[in-house]
Design goal:
The protein is α+β, with helices and mostly antiparallel strands. It folds into two domains: 5-39 and 302-339; 48-282, Alpha-Beta Plaits. The chain has helices spanning 5-29, 62-71, 135-139, 166-170, 194-197, 204-208, 219-230, 302-312, 317-339, and strands spanning 48-53, 102-107, 113-114, 120-126, 145-147, 154-156, 177-178, 187-188, 214-218, 237-240, 256-259, 280-282. Helix 1 (5-29) packs antiparallel against helix 9. The structure holds iron/sulfur cluster (SF4) (3 copies).
Length: 340
Amino acid sequence: MTLSRRNFLSKAARGSAAAATAACAAVAAAPEANALQRPPKPMPAEAVGLLYDSTLCIGCKACVKACKDANGMPVEVAPDQTAWNGGEWDTPVELSGKTLNVIKAYTNGTMAEKDRETDGFAFIKRQCLHCADPSCVSVCPVTAMTKDARTGIVSYNPDACIGCRYCVLSCPFGVPKYEYDSPTGQIRKCQLCKHRLAENQLPACSDVCPTGATLFGRTEDLKAEAKRRVALKPGERTHYPRGDIAGKVGGRRDGHEATVRVAYQQHIYGEKELGGTQCLAVSAVPFDKLNLPTNVPETGYPTVSEGIQHTLYAGMVGPATLLAGLVYLAHRNTKDHDVD
Ligand code: SF4
Ligand code: SF4
Ligand code: SF4
């Protein structure tokens, strides 16, 4: 029996489409607990991260400057600031190829009071959240993005990177950025100052933060501290630690006693979002107002995308079909050329 190119492509397409349709239909039928989902990746027991408390942040941006210095990043001037800033002042407004950490402001109405949603203002710190199940690691075709099995820090290897920028597209938090203005551009994102941690120094942002708004520690310890804080009531006295919550990395720092001014949102950002993140945040203003994605599932996107991939590629049926098609076409074209 002979198989024409048209027949072959038609059958291959029907086979692939059937497999893809079956996979998508199964996902659509039971998106919560799907046979195609792979199990979520757990947070490493020794995972480390940051706890950012928006109510303690005074917007001084010492963390932005320290992050630049610690990571050799250049000054950045926002386009609307060039009239008064010739490049002496670092004034980033977004994460970028020059900025790994930025403090952004929420404002509303008269902005009369800090940490108030209406007629108030608040700050939010943006940097890589070091996801438990990171999309950037999942999509990277050459393992230039990796997650450390012990600390959970998500790192980038420029020597392995092929510049495809899938990580930029895949991150649900919009974190990795590409250096578009460099002929040898790399991806840039926070790597939790792992070079400083290797020398028992704090991540630079938590090292310099004067109020303890950015606190370093084991994610489990930070989560417990976040739970303690959101349970506090306005008017209560409490202790806010500074530096490393365990007082080990970078030496012990004095924290401070304070009266809780405002009611915390009953939400620890990063506790559940997309499978959990090692960097967490608490705030008095809702997180959607602070421009963090809140309408997201509690398992990471890779649980579904990798599950579907593994199903379609099970037994290498998809790639084998494609390869056979390409070989057939190459053979036909070579034969036709020889005859001619
Ligand atoms: S150093 Fe601390 S208080 Fe200052 S902007 Fe950064 S997080 Fe806020
Ligand atoms: S926040 Fe984005 S860049 Fe950071 S680990 Fe998660 S997916 Fe990767
Ligand atoms: S951990 Fe280091 S790289 Fe990450 S935001 Fe803080 S200072 Fe910047």
